[in-house]
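User: For my dataset I need records formatted as: sequence, then structure tokens, nothing else. Please produce one.
Assistant:
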Amino acid sequence: MLIYEATGNYYKDTSKKNMMRAFVAVEILNDEVINSITKFQSKINIEAKPVKPQNLHFTLQFLGEISDDVSQKIKQALKTIEFSTFKINFKGLGAFPKIKFPRVVWIGTDEVGGNALADLAKNVENVLTPLGFISDKPFKSHITVFRIKNKIGDISKELEKYEKYDFGSQEISKIKLKQSVLTPQGPVYSDLEEIKAKK
């Protein structure tokens, strides 16, 4: 029997010892977009750790630690999702939790692309809710590009310099169930399942 322990905005399956940290994501795969982001990361003058190119993604839903049995159920649930390919434009900058006290810096999307991503995230949540995974935060279409460990103060003026920076666009044609292994050098992601758009 599965026992779920509420932990923040996800549920932790405590029924088995062999656990994996997992999330559902849309990866950034367009080389031009990745090059634009890495170029921006090298230009901006803030004390922060850039996210590696291979780790850039939109998190549709963070699942926390799950067992292999639960991951199999998640895979089957995700396979029931039907969606069509859509395009997103990468634009706008921001920070969480606040631009004056940032912990992460992110790049956003255009309104149409962002709404399509939000709909896709809602579809993911709908099929995973019966398995005990419930998001308690509204989806925000963004990709994290910097992580900040130390207090660095207000970065609004620095971000304003790049608010019209063109990061390019990408077609979204698949979502993935990903595993995350935390290491001293940063997280290492691997694919557990891929679900492609129907058209």
